[in-house]
Amino acid sequence: MTKTIIDQAGTGVETRPAIRTRESLLSTYRTELAIAGAIGLLVLAVGTQVPQALSWGNFANITQAGAPLIIMSLGVLLVVITGGIDLSVGSVFSLTGMVTAQAMAAGFGGVSAALVGLGVGLVFGSINGFLVTIAGLAPFVVTLITFAVAGSLAFIVTNGRSMPIGDPDFWLLNSGSMIPGMPNYILFCIVLLVAIELFLKKMVAGRWFYAVGSSAAAAHLLGIPVKRTQFFAYVASSLLASFSGLLTISYILNAESTAGSSLMLQAIAAVVIGGASLLGGTGTAVGAVLGALMITVIQNGVNLIGINSFWQGSVTGLAILIAVLIDRFSKSRRGAV
Amino acid sequence: MTEKHNIVSVRSLTKAYGATSVLKGIDFSVARGEIHALLGGNGAGKSTLIRIITGTATKDGGELDFRDASGNLLSETDGRHKVAVVHQELALLPHLTVAENIALPHFRKGSRLYDRRLATRQAHDALSMIDRDFAAVALNRLIGDLSLHEGQMVEIARALSSGAELILLDEPTANLTAIETERLFDVLRRLTRDNGLSVVFVSHRMKEIRQIANVCSIIRDGRTVVKSVPTADLTDFAIIEHMGQAHALAAPRVTKVAAQQAMAGEPLTIAEDGFTVVLQPGTILGIAGAPAGPQTLIAALVGAAHAKRWTVTRSGWPGRFRSPREAARAGAGFVTGDRAHRGILHSLPIIDNVVASRRVTRGSFFANKHEGVECFDLMQALKVKAGSLWHLPNTLSGGTQQKLLLARWLNLPSRLLVLEEPTRGVDIGTKREIYQLIRDMAATGTAIVWWSTENAELLEVCDRVLAFDTEGRSSGVIERDQLSEDRLAALTGMAA
Amino acid sequence: MKTKLNGWLAMAASVALAALSSVAHAQEKKTVAYLAPSLDISYWQWVGFGVKQKAQELGMDYVEFTSENSPAKQMDNARTAVTKGVDAIVIGPVSSTSTPPLLAYLKSQNIPIAFAGIGPQPGQTDYTSSVTANNYETGKAQGSFVCALAKERGGNKVGMLSLPQDRENAQKYLKGAQEAFAADGCKLAQMLETRGLTVNEAVTQANDMLTAHPDIKAIYGMYDEAGTGAAKVLETRGLTGKIGIAVADGSPTTIGLLKAKAIQGIFFQEAVGQGIDGTQQVFNALTKAPVKKDLALVMPLVTADKIDSPEAKAVIARVFPPSK
User: What is this structure's pTM?
Assistant: First the structure.
């Protein structure tokens, strides 16, 4: 056996690079920037086929069509960050619309009917939260149950019939302008985006969402209120789904039992496109909103170009794949696989 | 011995993660039939080297050869089939039985049907090589029901059973008791002697290295500093010097606080029907023994689940904490021994990992700027190398991650700090740093409870030791003037 | 604890059994079963209303099953119905192609069956009656009407909000409409197919369609929600009346829009009527009266100016149940 000793010099002195104590926004939002870029490219690509895609009117179309999904995605994001999943949002969305419309038909005013509608979100969010935290059931199972129940109640409320909205001023919720020049649906999206992003980044309770999703066991041992955080996530998710349902009926002035059935998968897709992991512990509100916008832009592009709408699912799937790859790539570059 | 008998050899191996260069030119080889200690401080590049050999990481540059017994070059894929690794953190499937976990590699080619009897027999053969008694009872138990050390035995058995010609053991003894360690060493010696098996052994325990390894290599900062030298030719001091940790030995041994000189302040009382231990502020109580007993006590101290037996008394404390949250807010901190699953929050940046405990105990509302400064100071105090507080913890070495867990409770006015194996998987230099840190924390009046399976550690740092027997019952308290390996062995029922 | 739970389960089971047997006991009267493909869509509820109404009139009992869009469930339902002893079946099948095994089975059990809404697979003969809308002729009529709307508004471009084109009725509508467009000199600028059949989706599609093709002067809506969505978009854009809309099916919502002149015409699919006619035919078969094997109803058009006429009211009575 050859005996070799290399490099005898042991200095014992280590040079330490200075530690960054400020968060670098560029590296924090690297994935989000990439997705925003991808959305821009997509819009431009559609624009080469259909010039009107780049018009102001089409921008209004996209934001109006995307607003409910954006708001619902923000809610789903909160649950996904904690490591859970909420399959009930689409059903809660539909049921909220039906209950609100029915309340108006029963003589409630627009505001009180809307509050009754939000009650749907509160009730189903609490049921989800209770079954996940106190009863300790798996989130997938719990929200599969409430998905089914809320979905069937949406039919039961009016016996399956769609309901026109009674209050003639109800359109103001969606299309009015509390800030002149900006329709409310855009205002709501921006306010909720900023509020939720700041909550997640700057408030301790928001940081707990990530801690719980990263490892509930570690968070529990640290003294983090795991169950309270999870419960709040499910309530927030349902309430936002409910609110999103209100916005939609305020827009089309008509409530349908099946209105939200396609939204649940889109909202989960939006959150994933936005860089959140379904395993929990990651994700940003900015990402979720961009994810929802991306899905809306794809649908808009498919319609504008006149591609058979059955391709929408495949295109969306491809977008999810690309977004997840972008996310993985940008993370591995940071050495944080 | 000539080069062609090496089962694996690497030359000038390099690897970088992003801008950080981890391996800067490693030379390393393992001959057939040897037990080869791979040594180096935390962050030296040991884990990365092992990952490249097993194929879970790709090399940036350099050569990597696998050869068969007659010296013929093998493809990397064929070569890797002859290598098995036992991970530092368990890599078993918790919902499957012991037998299924051990037999799994045999069914790697999915076309073969799962043959329950064959699997059981193979598992039994492999496990009996380590422990006949355990093999007789354990085969049909679920991995999830095993203790950490039993899980590790299963993992070693799986590596043995997979027919590998080279086994990489990454700190395999960290969870094993002295008897189990001795048994493992016997098995390794037998297998290398009779079957020509090669073993690469990573450990920070000098005593074990001397016991088991006939050859050692030392790497430091991504470079090989000692290549395949007989262990007997190097003194302990030479090894530590090569690892670049001579300064750790130069540091004075920590001084213990005599019980009589204990800090002013109210003591804690730990009691289990009829058995009472008074814990003075500023003292370190060691816990020795097989996991069952210490784990029950620790669960009670920190408010974790199912802690009916013990009460913890102090004015203002409820006797039993209902949750870790209640414990933390009352001033009882906890550093878990299961760093990977119950310690580090892997998807959160370093800063959140460190300040989480402060946010809990202070009940803070906002995550503010001061936390950055606070975290920065803690990182300085702990000599943690990190590019940014916003990097994820898995960019740090295992030993540094352990420091993060300790940093959570550093400089907090805690009444009690409970530590589970706080030096598991850390190198000698870091170990010394941790000893000193905890002493410093005790000096501020915090009472420390320290569970360790390494008797040398208990002897060095603890003022008193509470021992548990193998049945999990408390068997007595050894005062500091009577602390010795023999006394510990007698009370814990385990060989020294 | 466990025994207590078992006790409850046993109790629940016996209650369910009692309920089932009480249904089975009412055997003196003839029973007609209505097999709906799904009850999510109000159309199939309305057919059921027609069946139930006619059954009461004829002194029959009524039971209802839903196949949840699954041919297998549909077959199971038929077997369950026969086992329970129903005398006749009115079915809205999951699809035409799902019907042959069903018909073979019912023939072996000697149970008369009438189709409502969707007919049997072409070539099948073992059924009592098939009451359907004549989608091809309706498509032609609606195509002409929509083309006329466009021309009145000074253009010849039309847009279409279609049902999914894998549906046979959608294909027939389209074929008829295309022939009418060609004959009358109109151009189909764009067709978008729905997936979710919701107003919200139709709004998005109509918006996108008008963005891509601002020169569209009339919109052909193949289902109610399409008309509602298109009307909503025109209202937002201030184009109500400037772009024409005709819709097929008809519902309280679209009738409201017709009255408000937000849409110009509805081709009514007589859902209730199909249920009524189908039930009459199976009843005839049971009482050995003559049956009409194929009833292809051309969908009657009601325009905005005629909506309050007695003829229109008679049509609407055969479309959906009166609101409570």
Answer: 0.78
